[in-house]
Design a protein that fits this description.
Structural class: alpha/beta
Strand content: 5-15%
Order of helices and strands: EHEHEHHEHHHEHHHEH
Strand order of the largest sheet: 1-5-6
Number of strands: 6
Distance between the termini: 16 Å
Largest sheet: 3 strands, parallel
Length: 232
């Protein structure tokens, strides 16, 4: 699982790791791209030939599409608790339909964002939402029962993140989370001891990848990390 604040280079890391795995002869299936084309999540049968499943949250179908194009847009009036529930529902369907069947047959899942994002973002958006509440939601509880073997956190200065976000060519509406003060809070949460301990207690190994570097350097570091994980 690859995570981090908005603008931290998660997609860059995932794409670099995908290239590395394909160079090793692994066939990849991109769930996000499938959703954009077909407006639904793929079935286990449609992904059966792939040895690596590339996932993204929120998805681009069903509940995930509602989150992306409606619920987290600036100016929309959705309570953070409703957004938290939507993320958990999107995650529940993604795991049941895509991730778990793939894992059961021995495939690798490379996920861009996941339950780690909900753990960081939703309580930060509203202090009345506790970590215990987030972890009790069905989709989140399922994800923690199948915690990632490795969680890669892209570490980036929030000021640089904001600069990257404002320069995105395809940016249309402001995302409710794309504020410097909020990104700073998120960064503190990602680097906290409690966050590390939560995942390590579930058997996850954390890796912090410096994404303050150039895109080429980040890609290079991601490929090196990917190769080291493949060898284990």
């Amino acid at each position: 699982m690859v995570d981090g604040i908005d603008g931290s280079g998660k997609r860059t890391i995932v794409e670099a790791m995908r290239e590395t795995m394909e160079s090793k002869g692994k066939k990849c299936f991109d769930v996000g791209e499938w959703c954009k084309l077909h407006h639904e999540l793929p079935t286990a049968e449609q992904m059966r030939e792939a040895s690596v499943i590339i996932g993204v949250e929120p998805t681009y179908a069903w509940t995930g599409a509602a989150i992306r194009y409606e619920m987290v847009r600036e100016g929309r009036e959705y309570h953070p608790r409703d957004i938290a529930n939507a993320f958990a529902l999107d995650r529940l369907v993604l795991y049941k339909r895509c991730y778990l069947p793939a894992l059961e047959r021995g495939a690798t899942v490379l996920a861009e964002r996941g339950v780690s994002s909900s753990i960081i973002y939703q309580p930060a958006a509203d202090a009345s939402i506790t970590l215990e509440e987030i972890l009790s939601l069905t989709g989140n509880a399922m994800a923690m029962r199948h915690a990632p073997d490795h969680l890669i956190v892209a570490s980036l200065d929030p000021i640089i993140a904001m600069d990257r976000l404002t320069r995105r060519a395809n940016k249309q509406d402001e995302h409710i989370y794309e504020k410097e003060a909020f990104l700073r809070l998120l960064n503190e949460r990602y680097t906290s001891d409690w966050f590390r301990e939560l995942f390590t207690s579930h058997g996850t190994k954390l890796h912090f990848l410096n994404s303050n570097k150039t895109i080429n350097d980040v890609r290079s570091d991601a490929k090196i990390l990917c190769l080291s994980l493949l060898e284990k």
